[in-house]
Amino acid sequence: MIYLNGDFMPIEEARVPVLDRGFIFGDGVYEVIPVYSRKAFRLAEHLLRLQHSLDGIRLQNPHSDSEWSNLLEQIIAGNEHDDQYVYLHVTRGVARRDHAFPKGVVPTVFIMSNPLLAPPAELLAAGVAAITANDNRWLRCDIKAISLLPNVLLRQMAVDAGAMETVLLREGFMTEGAASNIFVAKNGVLLAPPKNHLMLPGITYDVVLELAAAEKIPYEVRAISEYEVRTAQELLLTSSTKEIMPITRLDGKPVGEGKPGAMFALLYRLYQRYKHNVMRGNLPVSSPDVS
Ligand code: PDD
């Protein structure tokens, strides 16, 4: 069951007019929210980032947080899996094709859900391969825009090379992955690139840094050079659908010892513990900064 512009329906029945600006221009933003045991994880943070993206494209939020939360609850209840990832998407609506914003047009709102499958144990045990590429995206990567053509092309480069992700480098520094955030570990220190217009401020990224702070794992948030990426002892990728995964090969060469390291093992364990505590109601769903 999906939601489209006020109605719930099976996905096969959902129709969007061809003049929707999402279809014509990619003029919209989206969120991907993980749902564990039918509870949306870090919902307040995802809705805050949605607001940031909408502000970034100058589109009024069509719903209040409580309306979003209600719609999501209905979508979660209407889909069969306990663990899901909800995709929500807002476009500037349907109008005659003209680059300039149309007046008086109602945004298109679409929500769907898919089963959320944890990464297979073999992948976590062996780690995944990644390649590097030049980050040729625009300068507002902090907006979660539906116009993802550069990300699509960059991630396909990884797939074509038999790898899982593309680590992006811009002017000698690492920004993020084509569809994930990237961390480096070196000499027991976790390195994270600073949140700015060159990367998506990941919700999972925040959780990882909060866990590092709470557990007194040394970490630094600062620009990470290409050299540091290439000489990393560990590389980790994070996203709402992949949680935390170890990258053990980069451009065909082993990362560190070529197997998941101690930083991954620790953060993975902490992340799973945190997630289960939140879902059992032992910890608040959102971070103290947001709730
Ligand atoms: N993408 N950076 C990019 C470019 C991403 O597309 C994503 C996630 C992230 C990680 O953000 P978060 O931890 O909030 O999921 C970073 C989602 C999962 C997607 O497009 O499907």
Query: What is the number of domains?
Result: 2
CATH class (first level) name of the largest domain? Alpha Beta
Assign the CATH topology of the largest domain.
D-amino Acid Aminotransferase, Chain A, domain 2
Low-pLDDT residue intervals, each spanning 5 or more residues: none
Largest sheet: 9 strands, mixed
- Mean of residue pLDDT? 96
Q: Write the element-wise H/E pattern from the N-terminal end onward.
A: EEHEEHHEEHEHEEEEHEHEEEH
Proportion of beta-strand residues: 25-35%
Number of E-state strands: 15
Distinct small molecules: N-(5'-phosphopyridoxyl)-D-alanine
CATH superfamily of the largest domain: D-amino Acid Aminotransferase, subunit A, domain 2
Q: What is the CATH-assigned architecture of the largest domain?
A: Alpha-Beta Barrel
Oligomeric organization of the protein chains: single chain
Helix content: 25-40%
The rough form would be described as globular
SS-derived structural category: alpha+beta
Describe this structure as you would to a colleague.
The chain has 291 residues and is α+β, with helices and mostly antiparallel strands. The protein folds into two domains: 2-115, D-amino Acid Aminotransferase, Chain A, domain 1; 121-279, D-amino Acid Aminotransferase, Chain A, domain 2. Helices cover 29% and strands 27% of the residues. The strands form two sheets. Strands 7, 8, 9, 10, 11, 12, 13, 14 and 15 form a nine-stranded mixed beta sheet that branches. A six-stranded antiparallel beta sheet has the order 2-1-6-5-3-4. Helix 6 crosses helix 8 (262-279). The longest helix is centred in the last third of the chain and has 18 residues, at 262-279. Bound molecules: N-(5'-phosphopyridoxyl)-D-alanine (PDD).
